[in-house]
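Q&A log
Question type: sequence-to-structure
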Amino acid sequence: MPAAGAPSIEVRLASPRGFCAGVDRAIQMVERALAKYGAPIYVRHEIVHNRTVVERLAALGAVFVEDVADCPADRPLLFSAHGAPKAAFEAAERRGIFHLDATCPLVTKVHNEAERHHAEGRHVLLIGHAGHPEVLGALGRLPEGAMSLIQTVGDARDFRWDGVTPLAFVTQTTLSVDEAAEISGVLKARFADLVGPVKEDICYATTNRQEAVKQLADGCDLVLVVGSKTSSNSVRLVEVAARSGAKNARLIDGAEDIDWTWLKDKAVVGLTAGASAPESLVQKVLDAIAARYELLVREVAPMRENISFKLPRILAE
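Response status: OK
Response body:
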């Protein structure tokens, strides 16, 4: 409870927020693998991009590595929700490592699209951010030179093409919806026969969370986004909030990262969480604010989600 006479503050709570179906599935896979096979199990890359989640799973016996070469051959290996290049799977198979694929099904959809376009003779343009694990995984699904990375509108304008090879494009699933639309719009204007996804590549969770932030941001003195710096979809939420009318927007891993001067003399604060951030972190932020302010919480709920992805049969049994 705040002290008597504490100032009041309104928190606009975004809905949906937090875990998406792909993240929930990946975390469950690590937990069930630990229960079935015992510790340690190995995970190539962070299973999802959230410090709290990774630290909790590490305490249970998950070992996170960046290279399959760092995994012993006699322990299970999981590939993270972001996907991985074919070479990583092939390295595990050569060494006889039992492995499970926790790649989000919506990321797998992008991989399948890219492979289909390549098989049909098209050069594939990937709209995404260099260095992100999802992008590295997608680039690694095709032979070198079969895919070109387009990061910006400038890249889309400057891309050089032989004028003969047909083109197609796919996108990283966690981009800004508006930014991706702008980039793809430039490409479509330049290349009339460009083939795009049958259904939008940016995942439902990214789209829904960005739409919720757009609806709450206007009139907010500050929007807090709970999520780690390595989380692409969380970083995009900060950008969307700033573009949608919030006077300020900040990315925090949790309540401990709040600089309380940010809230001084503020009347309205927005709060959301990236798709890899657990709801418990959101609740801790609310509790921390409630300890200092008379708190009014208003949920901004443009839509509800009821999507889930099945676990592999070997872990569902």
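Response note: The two ends are 46 Å apart (CA to CA).
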